[in-house]
């Protein structure tokens, strides 16, 4: 089977990551969670009290930032590491979610992470999810998907995800966070979230997880 790039973009909490992961597994491709990279950068800035609006702090933060994806020997899953430390759970916390979209507006941070994402995907055979994958990171991706879902569905799914990790968060707080991130992500100057004209839109509000995975795998097989 040939190798292609599958770019999956969309609003916060549409289930892009879990879908992309399952699509990658099915195709025998590598999954890359670009949101995890912005989240890891955010955690790094928070841990070191660095301000994204201070250019010196940004330069300092980027100089000491090393993000990687490795298989965790305990779980057998690919997880996110920040400067050698597993941060997979910590980067999903509400404190990181509340700050990440602000960090993601900073041009220098985006430049660095986009360069890393391009390196990770240069051999193709990847499924990458995010906000600007089809528009900026891989504008030539062979398959571009734009995922949407209504707010209620997204908030409920995110609440379940957090619960599974032991964090109980009020549904209204999750909704506020999703709406706020969507607003910042769609209106920022640097690589705003947009649906590019060659992307296939999939509304997952009334789709089962399996159905959305099958649909994307099918589309991928048509272009491989
Ligand atoms: O995908 P996830 O919700 O984990 O992403 C967290 C945040 O990272 C998004 O709300 C967005 O602000 C930022 N992001 C981005 N560009 C990407 C991926 C994520 O700006 N390619």
UniProtKB/TrEMBL annotation:
GO terms for molecular function: ATP binding; CMP kinase activity; dCMP kinase activity. It is found in: Cytoplasm. GO terms for biological process: nucleobase-containing small molecule interconversion; pyrimidine nucleotide metabolic process. InterPro entries: Cytidylate_kin (IPR003136), Cytidylate_kinase_dom (IPR011994), P-loop_NTPase (IPR027417). It catalyses: dCMP + ATP = dCDP + ADP; CMP + ATP = CDP + ADP. Its main location: cytoplasm. Keywords: ATP-binding, Cytoplasm, Kinase, Nucleotide-binding, Transferase. ATP binds at residues 10-18. Residues 6-221 form the Cytidylate kinase domain. GO terms for cellular component: cytosol. Its EC number is 2.7.4.25. HAMAP family: Cytidyl_kinase_type1. Belongs to the cytidylate kinase family. Type 1 subfamily. This is Cytidylate kinase.
């Amino acid at each position: 089977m040939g190798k292609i790039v599958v770019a999956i973009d969309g609003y916060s909490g549409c289930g892009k990551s879990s879908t992309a992961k399952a699509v990658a597994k099915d195709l025998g491709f590598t999954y890359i969670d670009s949101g995890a990279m912005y989240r890891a950068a955010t955690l790094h800035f928070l841990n070191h009290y660095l301000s994204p609006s201070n250019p010196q702090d940004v330069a300092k933060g980027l100089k000491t930032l090393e993000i990687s994806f490795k298989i965790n020997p305990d779980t057998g899953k690919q997880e996110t590491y920040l400067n050698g430390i597993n941060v997979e759970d910590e980067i999903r916390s509400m404190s990181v979610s509340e700050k990440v979209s602000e960090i993601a507006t900073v041009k220098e941070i985006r430049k660095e992470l986009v360069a890393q994402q391009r390196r990770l995907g240069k051999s193709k055979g990847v499924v990458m999810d995010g906000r600007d994958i089809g528009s900026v990171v891989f504008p030539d991706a062979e398959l571009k998907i734009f995922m949407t879902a209504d707010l209620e569905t997204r908030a409920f799914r995110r609440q379940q995800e957090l619960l599974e990790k032991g964090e109980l968060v009020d549904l209204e707080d999750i909704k506020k966070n999703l709406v706020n991130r969507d607003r910042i992500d769609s209106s920022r100057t640097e690589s705003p979230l947009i649906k590019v004209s060659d992307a296939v839109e999939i509304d997952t509000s009334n789709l089962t997880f399996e159905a959305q995975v099958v649909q994307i795998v099918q589309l991928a097989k048509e272009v491989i």
